[in-house]
Amino acid sequence: MPAATAGAVESPESRLIFALDFPSLSAARAGAEKVRGAVGVLKVGLELFVKEGPAAFALAREADAALFADLKLHDIPETVERAVGSLAPVGARFVTVHAAGGAAMLARAVERAAKETNGKLMILAVTVLTSLDDEDMQAQGVSGRSRDHALRLARVAWSAGVRGFVCSPAEVAALRAELGPEATLVTPGVRPAGTAAHDQKRVATPEEAIAEGADYVVLGRPIRDAKDPAAAARAAAKEIAAGLARRAPGAVASPATRG
Q: Among residues 43, 51, 72, 201, which one is catalytic?
């Protein structure tokens, strides 16, 4: 089973993902331009994609950043595989699929990404959304804590060849311990020190998330709604650098050393 890989990560800025949560292409373009050079990855999510379609993907290239297509694909295996194939030509570094879609769906997504992009596109399996907590899990009939369920889903995805995961700060240490340095962990639900959690229930600062083992952190509103988005991004990058300094030597391999 081929395992997807991602490009090298070197600077704190390259580990920072900015969510382009804007209502229009023009607003998103302006937002991307404000953080040019201060973030390494731009994330296009459902709001912008549903409104503007694939044209939104070009914003990352225009801003000299990597593209994260946060589409959270979840369908029958053939449909997801074909969607990944359609996405390959846009040059994305990441695309999300729901780990709950099952082993067959995940495996076919990984295989198609490897075939179409020679490993340049990484499939990220979304475990448990950061807007959910243990009570939500119980209401859905899922036993145990949200962390337990995230680990169950991650194991299924890992066995299917997935090597990239989206998890909350509450689960990142457990996934790192379970999956080891080969896994790429992307952590949303991140809020810089002193900012509001909004609708996220399982949150941490960029420093905390990186120190726990995350490779990338996702920020949206704290940068988007700041008076100076570039300054907010640079402050987040400083927190990322502090988190890297807190890691135990050799505890997590540098993403730049991955194959």
A: 72
72 is catalytic: yes
224-247 pLDDT tens trace: 999 999 999 999 999 999 999 988
- One DSSP character per residue, 95-127 reads EEEEGGG-HHHHHHHHHHHHHHHTT-SEEEEE-
DSSP E strands, 136-253: 164-166, 184-187, 216-219
d(CA 250, CA 259): 17
Two tokens, residue 231: 């300054």
Q: Give the per-residue pLDDT at 255.
A: 46
Q: Are 222 and 16 in contact (CB under 8 A)?
A: no
Q: Residue 248 has what DSSP assignment?
A: P
Phi, psi (rounded to 5 degrees) for 93: -90, -35
Amino acid identity, residue 195? T
Q: Has this prediction a pTM greater than 0.90?
A: no
